[in-house]
Amino acid sequence: MSNSITIEKSPLGETKIYRVMKGRQKVHEDYGLWICLAQSGSNSVIHQNPQPRHFEFYNISHLRKGHGWFWTPGGGKKNFSAGDGVMLCPGIVHDYNGIDRYEEDYICFAGPLADQLARAGILKPGILHIGPMRLLLPIIEMASDPSRNSQIKANIALQELLVKLYFENLQQGESKKINAIEKLLQELIRHPEKWWTVAEMAEMVNLSVNQFIRVFSQHTGLTPKKYIDTLKIKLAAEALRDFRQPLAAVAKKLGYRDPFHLSKRFKAITGLSPLEYRRQVP
């Protein structure tokens, strides 16, 4: 990037600040969005130790070839591969570079429209999936033409792409969460004797407690605690169909302190005591 760079002292040491270049036209002010710098097929000089920096503009980078890493002071280093990209907002201290090679297409942009997209949550700093197609390239080519019409076309195309990527990554993120929840449900069945805490389950699926409760409840229709309670009683009902198993053995298998505790929860959920339930078993 050839934007103007200054260096400031910070708790992290020296931080490079990439300033917005001059050259904004009236069409950019009228539209509220300005592609201030864009380049295709750029190759970065590889370094492995993060060098703190932040931009005064928004930036989207699409890794075309190689393997990269993205770093923030609070999040540490995260790796990503060709087809992925990095989104950045103004003021975010970060660094990204290649593990072996980093060939990118990138677009730097600014303006009140970009600020509105960020406030709406559409622009979020971090790694995102873009795919193998060079989606930034047509926009870069349009932005290289300084004519008013070409600048408007580039702005419209960039805005549409940013919204498209937001929804695609949102859907992929939700799918990953659901897959993680499904694996957790299988684990709950494999270990019916365990009383899981919400924190333990949230950690297993790599979500915050609040996120986990929301996703779990949407997927199962039950809160995590209610699900475990209901699951244990369902398994108890299946076990009680085998008259050879004493109630104490069933209670122990499902992690209850004693048969009384199991009986109390069984009746609360089914409306029948274990003995009454067994009498109804054909």
Question: What report would you give on this structure?
Answer:
The structure is a single chain. The chain is of the alpha+beta class and 282 residues long. It has two domains: 5-169, Sandwich (Jelly Rolls), CATH 2.60.120; 191-282, Orthogonal Bundle (Arc Repressor Mutant, subunit A), CATH 1.10.10.60. It has ten helices and nine strands. Strands 3, 5, 6, 7, 8 and 9 form a six-stranded antiparallel beta sheet that branches. Strands 1-2-4 form a three-stranded mixed beta sheet, with no helix packed on it. A hairpin with a 3-residue loop joins strand 5 (58-72) and strand 6. Helix 3 (137-143) packs antiparallel against helix 4, helix 5 crosses helix 6 (209-220) and helix 7 (224-240) crosses helix 9. It is elongated, with a radius of gyration of 27 Å. The termini are far apart. The model has no long low-confidence stretch (mean pLDDT 92).
